[in-house]
Design brief:
The protein is mainly alpha-helical. It has helices at 2-5, 8-19, 33-48, 74-86, 92-115, 118-130, 133-136, 143-162, 167-183, 194-197, 205-237, 248-257, 259-270, 272-288, 292-312, 314-318, 327-339, 344-360, 378-383, 401-406, 415-418, 421-429; strands at 391-394, 410-412, 432-438, 451-455, 459-463. Helices cover 60% and strands 5% of the residues.
Length: 467
């Protein structure tokens, strides 16, 4: 029994089963439902409009095509492929992310075990499972998905260097690192781990050159996609959606201005408080004990990540998922601290405390607010008197979530815009047919001088005649 309990695969599977609870729920999670529905919009448009991965489409571009620049839509396309087999459903994204992110924990364990020891690998993996990873690995978002692909790529890349310089390891590393970096560019900060490896004397020059060439090949399509294709799509199709960051000085100034929120991503969102305490202990112990290997990994990932933080600015401070690529490194340092404790029962108690705090602080993501649920019926209501091709306007501000559930294209806007007749007239000239005024979830009630075609306690729908 003790041998089974110490097998990390058992814990990965157990955490997988726990997160299967509510896996089919609609993407109305309290945290970042808007981010999830932008993923599902693109996936559904692959199914219903055009399955060209190079032309992702969103639904809130009004009368435009919806084609726009964004991160490479690999997760979206996997949802599309699942839909080709089973028919479209949004929750495939949850399941795909959960499967890939669970595999990512396994590769993380293998990496740590290879370069440190099994006890440290086990501790760090449990901490990572309980971290922000716990909730975001079942969201329809590419963050843990991308980081997991990078971790797997790192494993095969290091295998090529220090175990077996086989072509299969090199090709696996290339494919996984390319997929991970394309899916979410900030995850590339973990590639910094390769830098000190190139200075190791026991690795042949030939293998170093081969790996360096592979990494350069990875970066070519990444650079083309993010710095040529994304701006091209925005300019060509006239709709900006994807956040490409800010100038370093401007972003750094915003991080300083939001210093409390920025630091909170590290000491609260990433590992929660007990886990962060273990991280601090591990960092200082590594420094005083001169653990060069651990400090090298930390430095060569932290400083590239810091550039991402400064590039993101206030966006990093205000959105918790930006910390995800660095969380495996924090879990590694925390695992080191626990590995130095000789009495195993103390380690077990700390791991239980970290796990309990992490899971309890994220359990709200497994339940939906009752007030949000009527949004799910919006498509069915609209289908009774309108066509799927009709353009609509919803008073959900910057949140596209209700528009996704309406299963239509159109606009999202705040109440102060919608009450202006000139604003409505302008959109009518572009093809606007219906306005949905949300009264509770995602919006507040207003009245406009248009014809009411449907009303209940959750929303009022207006029809706009051609003018």
């Amino acid at each position: 029994m003790l041998k089974v309990i110490k097998d990390i695969r058992i814990w990965i599977f157990l955490f997988f089963l726990i997160r299967m609870y509510g896996i089919t729920l609609p993407p109305l999670d309290k945290g970042h439902n808007w981010r999830q529905t932008t993923v599902t919009m693109v996936a559904r448009n692959f199914v219903e409009t055009e399955a060209n991965i190079f032309y992702p489409r969103i639904d809130f571009a009004g009368e435009k095509t919806g084609i726009t620049g964004m991160e490479f839509p690999l997760l979206n396309y996997l949802i599309y492929l699942f839909s080709m087999l089973f028919g479209y459903d949004h929750w495939y994204g949850r399941l795909i992310n959960l499967m890939i992110s669970s595999a990512g924990i396994w590769y993380f364990f293998l990496l740590v075990r290879k370069y440190f020891n099994e006890r440290m690998a086990f501790n760090a993996s449990i901490i990572l499972l309980s971290s922000i990873w716990f909730a975001y690995s079942r969201k329809i978002m590419p963050d843990t998905f991308s980081t997991s692909l990078i971790l797997a790529g790192l494993y095969y890349g290091t295998n090529y260097l220090d175990r077996k310089s086989s072509l299969s390891n090199l090709l696996a590393a290339f494919g996984l690192l390319l997929a991970g970096t394309m899916s979410k560019l900030p995850s590339a900060c973990l590639l910094g781990i390769f830098i000190p490896i190139f200075f190791l004397k026991d690795i042949t020059f030939k293998r170093k050159i081969s790996l360096a060439s592979m990494l350069l090949l990875v970066m070519v399509p990444v650079i083309i996609w993010y710095f040529y294709w994304v701006p091209f799509l925005v300019e060509e199709y006239g709709f900006w959606h994807f956040f490409m960051g800010k100038g370093m000085l401007e972003g750094a100034g915003e991080v300083v201005a939001y210093w409390n929120e920025s630091l909170k991503k590290f000491y609260e969102n990433a590992l929660m408080f007990i886990g962060f305490g273990a991280f601090l202990a591990g960092f200082f112990l590594a420094f005083f004990q001169r653990n060069k290997k651990l400090l090298t990994v930390f430095c060569f990932t932290f400083f590239p990540f810091l550039l991402i933080v400064f590039k993101s600015g206030a966006t990093f401070a205000l959105h918790s998922y930006y910390i995800i690529p660095f969380v495996p490194v924090m879990a590694l340092v925390s695992g080191y601290a626990l590995s130095l404790i000789r009495k195993r029962w103390i380690v077990v108690v700390i791991l239980i405390a970290i796990g309990a705090e992490g899971i309890l602080n994220q359990q709200h993501d497994f339940r939906l607010r009752e007030s949000d649920l009527p949004i799910v019926d919006l498509e069915q209501v609209l289908d009774t008197f309108s066509q799927r091709s009709d353009l609509i306007l919803i008073n959900s501000g910057d949140y596209p979530t209700p528009l996704y559930f309406a299963h239509r294209k159109g606009w999202i806007a705040p109440n102060e815009n919608i009450v202006r007749s000139a604003y409505r007239d302008d959109l009518v000239s572009k093809g606007l047919k219906y306005i949905v005024i949300l009264k509770q979830a995602f919006g507040t009630s207003i009245e406009i001088p248009e014809a009411v075609v449907f009303e209940n306690e959750n929303y009022t729908i207006y029809h706009l005649d051609d003018r």
